[in-house]
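User: Please run a holo structure prediction.
Assistant: Happy to. Please share the sequence and the ligand.
User: Here you go; the ligand is NAP.
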Amino acid sequence: MARTGRAVEFDRYGDVDELHFVPQELPVPADDEVVVEVVAAGLNHIENFIRRGDFAELLPREFPARQGSCFAGIVKKRGSAVRDLAVGAEVIGHAIGGGAHATWVTVPATAVVKKPPHVSWEVAGGLFLAGATAYDIVRGLHLGAEDVVVVSAAAGGVGHIECQLALAAGARVIGTCSERNHDYLRSIGVVPVTYGEGIRERIEEAAKGPVTAFIDNHGGDNPALADELGVPASRFSSSEHRLDVEVRFITADRDDAEPAMILSALAKLIAEHKVRVLISGFYPFDYVQQAFADLAEKHSRGKVVIGMQPVETGPRSHWYLSGKARSFAESHD
Ligand SMILES: NC(=O)c1ccc[n+]([C@@H]2O[C@H](COP(=O)([O-])OP(=O)(O)OC[C@H]3O[C@@H](n4cnc5c(N)ncnc54)[C@H](OP(=O)(O)O)[C@@H]3O)[C@@H](O)[C@H]2O)c1
């Protein structure tokens, strides 16, 4: 008997309550495509912006529209030309044109990479857009052991990955956040600095020397702050630049090999424990509206992810630690 799935759609621009489920049949892949049964999928601010219509000119949608750029799941069907991915393979991917918030997503085989066994489903599902954005921005700054870099919104879905990539490049990292995130940032080797009045003095005290680079995720007063700290313009990655990077990855087409290359590099870094992706909330699929609404509060610690299937989460062995945001405080009491 054919199974029926479901996909999240919206029929006009608007708030989270425009999202609803529609039934989905198991898709048939083209020759070069795979159908992946989605286990977990990440949520991103840009998806909220697109659905609200903020980017109606830049990223117009035809209705009914689907969303979801990041996913991890199990190959259910493959096209006749797909050789290197078997049915049953566990993969991490990016959904070209969206549509990952569904039971099944159909993508070119080149849009997925194999999921290392020790990378959990929720981490893999939330990896693509935040990870690729962080990777591209940190790579662009050519950070090294001589650098002191400030990362704004350092505990957020993108910021916490940027921090760890900057640390892996050898830099000292100062992360801006509120007090509630100090313990978490310290635990990954970042010097936390509370944002708000007096931030410049706090950063100067923490830096103990010149600040050589600045990654701004948040916008606001940060361009002026970077200028006051003496960061050269060439080493200031602006919030506008981040948006450009996100748009570049969300619109990457099937001939673009870079997203899969970056996904492979990130999966390797996670499997080697050089990057630990923190999950702020792992919501059942039914709670997709709530998950997007929580993300929009802008106080996530790590990534917000939805799960299409019940999965085993948490530590897989004594050496793999998946720090859960909501249990982090308890585990450090
Ligand atoms: N440039 C862009 O294209 C773009 C796109 C989407 C979002 N954003 C903004 O960038 C931030 C990070 O992006 P994300 O995808 O990583 O989102 P996210 O996961 O929602 O980021 C949430 C983090 O932002 C921090 N934050 C909130 N207000 C802050 C402030 N005034 N200064 C510094 N940090 C602040 C929060 O820390 P506390 O809980 O400690 O306050 C939280 O850890 C978001 O909060 C959003 O405002 C920018």
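Residues 45, 152-153, 155-159, 176-178, 180-181, 195, 217-218, 239, 242-243, 246, 295, 298-301 surround NAP (CB under 6 Å).
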